[in-house]
Amino acid sequence: MAEREALPTMEEEDEEVVAEIEEEKIVELPNQAFWVMVHTLIAAGSWIAMLVVVTLFHPLVVPVAVTTALSFTVPFVVGNIFNRFKQNDMGPQLWLVAFIWFMGIVLWVLDMPTGPNECYHCDASQKIFLTFASFTSDSGLIDGQGRLVGTWPTVALIGYAIGSKMALKSKDA
């Protein structure tokens, strides 16, 4: 009977395994945070480089759709190439950074007062749509730079995350 009590029960073993797994996850947190920061800087850097290159050509007008497509495509390619050479699971998680960034900017825009030439008589959905998503008109909020501050960085981070994820999948195959 004493031998039976000395042996750990199945529940105790499960709790020990769960505790070990959680401890391993905690040890990896600084490394994961570092790689999220690295991937974010690479994605933002590739997007900024794309904007600089487009600006150097001195175009009179660059359509919003073209800039949006380039904001997705350039970081997508960079993320795909980077993750082919440096396999890392944190690259695909950049969509979370994009979501947090966009939600912060959306809250800022929603808190802004309206007035003449600044989305006068707009409700919340009109403020968001005209500031970030409309290809033909602008809300006038954030000095008309809603796409530059909110939409394009978000699209760039999401593009990088998708490119990174595709590189991880192709490496596994």
Question: Any overview of this molecule?
Answer:
- This protein is mainly α.
- It has one domain.
- It is built from 6 helices and no strands.
- It has helices spanning 2-6, 10-56, 64-85, 94-111, 124-133, 146-172.
- α2 packs across α3 (64-85) and α3 runs parallel beside α6 (146-172).
- The longest helix is centred in the first third of the chain and has 47 residues, at 10-56.
- It starts with a helix and ends with a helix.
List the helices and strands and how they pair.
Blueprint: H1 2-6, H2 10-56, H3 64-85, H4 94-111, H5 124-133, H6 146-172
Helix pairs in contact: 2-3, 2-6, 3-6, 4-6
* H/E series: HHHHHH
Number of domains: 1
> What would you report as the Rg, rounded to the nearest angstrom?
23 Å
The helix content, as a percent range, equals over 70%
Low-confidence stretches: none
Number of helices: 6
The computed structural class is mainly alpha
Largest sheet: none
| Binned strand content | under 5%
Mean of residue pLDDT?
87
Q: Tally of extended strands?
A: 0
Shape: flat
> Whole-Å distance between the termini?
53 Å
Keywords: Membrane, Transmembrane, Transmembrane helix
Transmembrane segments: 33-54, 60-82, 94-110
Protein name: Transmembrane protein
Keywords:
single chain; 173 residues; mainly alpha; 75% helix; 0% strand; flat
